[in-house]
Amino acid sequence: MAPGYARRPPPPHRAPIAPVPPFTCGRVRWAVMIPPRDDSAAPPPGWPVTEAGALAVQDRLRDRVVLDEPGPEPGAPLVAVGVDVAYDDARDLVVAAAVALDAGTLEVLEEATAAGPVAFPYVPGLLAFREVPAVLAALERLTVTPGLVVCDGYGLAHPRRFGLASHLGVLTGLPTIGVAKTPFVFAYDAPGPRRGDSAPLLDGAEEVGRALRTQEGVKPVFVSVGHRVDLDRACAHVLRLAPRYRLPETTRAADSLCRRALAAG
DNA sequence: GCGACAG
DNA sequence: ATCTTGTCGC
């Protein structure tokens, strides 16, 4: 692991990943987040168990999304962290992975995983409630400080403008973006055929993200802002992280790791 | 009202 | 997401 990257002192379990104003979830106060419990990836006390409860949490947290920061400068030194999860519903098990890469060289700097019970059923628009607890636990186990978190799914491209990437950003305070493989419910025109070509991802007349061609002749990915990053930079980071394949290396590394961890455990 | 619907 | 055979290509 290359020296020169900022590190947080372990153990991180009692310390917030980043200074974020306290908020409450249900009746429970999360200083920023996740917490202690044991060292599992179980959802914290107060994690919603109903759709109505989850909708209420989204409604309460959505205005905490920060959209007026440009985010990390593409080309500058950056620790880009990919997060993803794999499931075994039969065993009520979810495994999350967080893989930190040097955004310049794509070298793997650090890997972490966390396993726990499935926190929520899959409901379109409420994906964060299923994935976030385990993802937070995996992020906490990294010792490098993420400069950008790349999520598998959406941020602002969400019916209530609060997808997984935005949710994770608000909870951690970290800059986040969403990279999805399918366009969810939004409309777009096919981007040009070359790598780097893009077209707006539209909710009516509102651009909620971008269909971005990362490889020539390959279908685009769908990029949206999560938290503390603008859309131009989000796309620039995705392009740089995907020099060879359709999906960014962050996503590929995290996907691979959580699947291996699920199969192993 | 019914279906579609990130992962 | 996950269930899954073979197949084309580097």
TrEMBL record:
Enzyme class: hydrolase
Catalytic activity: Endonucleolytic cleavage at apurinic or apyrimidinic sites to products with a 5'-phosphate
DNA repair in keyword set: yes
Biological process annotations from GO: DNA repair
Subcellular location as annotated: Cytoplasm
UniProt xrefs under Gene3D superfamilies: archaeoglobus fulgidus dsm 4304 superfamily
Signal peptide: none
Chief localisation class: cytoplasm
Residues noted as binding Mg(2+) in the record, renumbered to the chain: D84, D152
Pfam families per UniProt: Endonuclease_5
Regions annotated as coiled coil: none
Domain of life: Bacteria
This protein's UniProt keywords: Cytoplasm, DNA damage, DNA repair, Endonuclease, Hydrolase, Magnesium, Metal-binding, Nuclease
CDD domains: Endonuclease_V
Cofactor: Mg(2+)
Gene Ontology MF annotations: deoxyribonuclease V activity; magnesium ion binding; RNA endonuclease activity producing 5'-phosphomonoesters, hydrolytic mechanism; single-stranded RNA binding
EC number: 3.1.21.7
Site (Interaction with target DNA) location in chain: Y122
Cellular component, GO annotation: cytoplasm
InterPro entries reported in the protein's UniProt record: Endonuclease-V
Record-stated family: Belongs to the endonuclease V family.
Role this protein plays: DNA repair enzyme involved in the repair of deaminated bases. Selectively cleaves double-stranded DNA at the second phosphodiester bond 3' to a deoxyinosine leaving behind the intact lesion on the nicked DNA.
UniProt-recorded name of the protein: Endonuclease V
Organism of derivation: Streptomyces mashuensis
Phylogenetic classification of the source organism: Bacteria, Bacillati, Actinomycetota, Actinomycetes, Kitasatosporales
Underlying gene: nfi
